[in-house]
Write a structure and sequence with these properties.
GO terms for molecular function: glycosyltransferase activity. By secondary structure, this protein is of the alpha/beta class. The protein contains 14 helices and 13 strands. The protein folds into two domains: about 180 residues, Rossmann fold; about 170 residues, Rossmann fold (3-Layer(aba) Sandwich). It has a seven-stranded parallel β-sheet, with helices on both faces.
Length: about 350
Amino acid sequence: MAVPEFAIEGTFFQTDRVSGIARVWTNVLAEWRRDGFLDRIVLFDRGDTMSQIFDARRELLPARDCTSIDGEPELLQMWCDRVGVRAFCSTYYAYPARTPSVALIHDMIPEVLGFDLAEPMWREKHALIARARGFVCVSHNTRRDLERLAPEAAARPIAVAHPGIDPAFTSGEPVDPPSRLEDLGVARDYVVFIGRPSGYKGFETLFYAVASLPAEARPQIVVVGPEDAPAIYVEYLGPGGIVRIHATDDGIRLLLAHARAYVAPSRYEGFGLTVLEAMASGCPVVCSDGGSLPEVAGDAALVLPVGDAAAFAAAIDGVRDLRVRNALIVRGLRRAGTFSWRPLADALREALEAAAA
């Protein structure tokens, strides 16, 4: 077996194997398997969390304590030296002490929204930004925010490459009828929200929008995510007004295919994979203009000002009109078809090769 030239470190898979960043890396590595670049890669697997995901050479590293970065650069450097790699990229923000690193920047959410940047993961992120040989950003908006909020990065190469859509949402397989959703407590008329109702995803905007609609026009809110909506919201809308479900990708596609709309009222997004997944599923999209969402949505969604509950209410009500709904579905399917994983896989490969030169 040839000596690998590049290391991909798996911190993110230690904590999350299904969210957007995990989707990005799963699909990038799949592209590299197809074009042969994976043969030049070694995965630094943290705590044996990548073995069921990728058929690639792995080195098993200890699971990391994500509340501390002490000793991490030295540990990763030891493994880089042991394997002999020439460049390194983490699935999140880890870095070795000396081996050249490439940074894949998904977003600048902590910086834009005022998180505590003294927390270990954000200190690690900015230490990586300070030393990375090059960057790949998932949107032009993310690049602008990187250059504005970490101006030292602007002097080094920065590529922009959009992610694609997970194959689970582009298979073309027919979806089950909506009756399959009834056992989950899903109503016949609903909108979908994906993510945590707390935080930057803007759930409160969706709640106020739906609550302002007359009863006959008010859809159920279906939350797909790891936490319940705030109890006060659930109580206000009454029984069945808000339901939370756990769903596989097939289940999410089923939900999207039969929904009145997918609503993404985020205050900020670095990209917005779920917007594309909804479009690919034939679901009308109503989203905010937060961060990169207008860049992703183009003219294929109803794009509204962040926090404008009245505008969201009008849009959610408006997609009941079949002419509006069908136009959004057609434009969304067309828009989704313009995205693929190849540009991002190529941009990361080129950045790694340049860092190693």
